[in-house]
Design a protein that fits this description.
- It contains 4 helices and 12 strands.
- The protein is an alpha+beta fold.
- It has 2 domains: 2-42; 50-174, Rieske Iron-sulfur Protein (3-layer Sandwich), CATH 2.102.10.10.
- The strands form 4 sheets. A 4-stranded antiparallel β-sheet has the order 7-8-9-10, with no helix packed on it.
- A hairpin with a 2-residue loop joins strand 11 and strand 12.
- FE2/S2 (inorganic) cluster (FES) is lined by residues 119, 121-124, 137, 139-142, 153-155.
């Protein structure tokens, strides 16, 4: 404040407040406009939504065979387990497992395992092999059993089981 002609004035303070308000308002509007394309690009495109489920015919999958399909851009194993593999997986002592889960918790139909084929260590795709009737990750040696459970190596958790339903005895809808 200054004294001018014995009057107390508030030099430019109202004007400054007004300019601050206008600047803030334009800044906020600019931020919203700048963010719009990014937010819009995050919405899933129609073709991505359409692929959010995948229907798989497993009638051609003989006992002992497995196949890899793609769901939402990720590989998924479907393994038709042998009677011996089913029996072996059922009798594993879950208390010794790093990520304790019974086989029953991981399958809907004991004949088939459905699991996302992405190693839970650093994301490599495991291959058939290892010592547990399942898969071996070639990157750092993790081994998963015929239930997709981590049995050896650095992976911290079991292979993820995706959401799926049986549409009939030989058709699975994943997603
Ligand atoms: S990514 Fe599979 S063991 Fe490291």
């Amino acid at each position: 404040m200054t004294k001018k002609n014995n009057k107390v004035t508030k030099p430019d303070s109202d004007r400054r407040d007004f300019l601050t308000d206008v600047t803030v308002a334009f800044g906020a509007a600019g931020a919203v406009c700048a963010a719009y394309p990014f937010v819009k690009s995050m919405s899933p495109a129609a073709n991505v939504k359409a692929q959010s489920t995948t229907t798989v015919d497993i009638s051609d999958l003989d006992e002992g065979m497995s196949k890899t399909i793609v769901w939402r851009g990720k590989p998924v194993f479907i393994k038709h387990r042998t009677k011996q593999e089913i029996a072996e997986m059922a009798k594993v002592d879950v208390s010794v497992l790093r990520d304790p889960q019974t086989d029953k918790e991981r399958v809907q139909n004991e004949k088939y395992l459905v699991a996302i084929a992405v190693c839970t260590h650093l994301g490599c795709v495991p291959i058939d092999g290892g010592n547990y009737e399942g898969w071996l990750c070639p990157c750092h040696g993790s081994q998963f059993d015929a239930s997709g459970r981590i049995r050896k190596g650095p992976a911290p958790t079991n292979l993820e089981v995706p959401p799926y339903v049986y549409l009939d005895d030989t058709t699975i809808k994943i997603g």
